Amino acid sequence: MRPERSGDEQRSRGLSHRPVLRWGLLAVVVAVALTVALWPRDASDDTTAEGGATRPVPVVSEQDRAAAALAACPRPGGAPVGDGPLRGITLTCLADGQPVDLAAALAGKPALLNLWAYWCGPCAEELPLLQQFSDRAAGAVTVLTVHSDPDAVKALVRLTDLGVHLPGVADADARVRVAVGTGPYYPQSVLLRADGTVADIVRRTFTSVDDIAATVDAQLGVQA
């Protein structure tokens, strides 16, 4: 028979397990925190307060728009509008607050729509590259930013800080993302043919201007 342990021995064994349990609990907490940190954010994250109430979205002033000095949004040029996924979607131009019929405005020319949000770190790295690519393409491809978050003021501030002046639209409800059938991950770029159909969805961050140019050439047949 095994001898019974004394009370002191039992207490000693119990104490020896406590650090193991403590470290195990800490590991679980860290794992949960990392999962939350890496989870993709959707457009509604910053507008929902505690208890489900909706936070007011700041109104964009003319001063905000002037400070950003964005290029004018594309406008319909009379080209036929195809049956692409953007047909029927009208968004607000960040430069002047005017409505933009996306399908009509983009018809007749290949386009790169960059879906981004002001809180997205990789987006801030990619946007200046897109500006350089647009300058290099010299109008052969329409490059349009699509801010997929309700807070357009913060979008304008971010673009101003980055020195990016590309034309852009505010997509508070992520309608473009839903229409093309992609998930809530940013940045990602939608490559559209001249007829409005989707050639490709690039679900990654571009690493250089040459990377953008090679992708556009491969998917849209436009060299820049």
TrEMBL record:
Transmembrane regions: 20-39
Pfam families: Redoxin
GO cellular component, one term: cell envelope
One example of a Gene Ontology biological process annotation: cytochrome complex assembly
Signal peptide from the UniProt entry: none
Swiss-Prot/TrEMBL keywords: Cytochrome c-type biogenesis, Disulfide bond, Membrane, Redox-active center, Signal-anchor, Transmembrane, Transmembrane helix
Limits of the Thioredoxin domain: 80-221
Gene Ontology molecular function, alphabetical: oxidoreductase activity
Subcellular location: Cell envelope
Source organism, top-level taxon: Bacteria
UniProt cross-references to PROSITE patterns, sorted A to Z: THIOREDOXIN_1, THIOREDOXIN_2
Protein name (record): Thiol-disulfide oxidoreductase resA
Gene this protein is translated from: resA_2
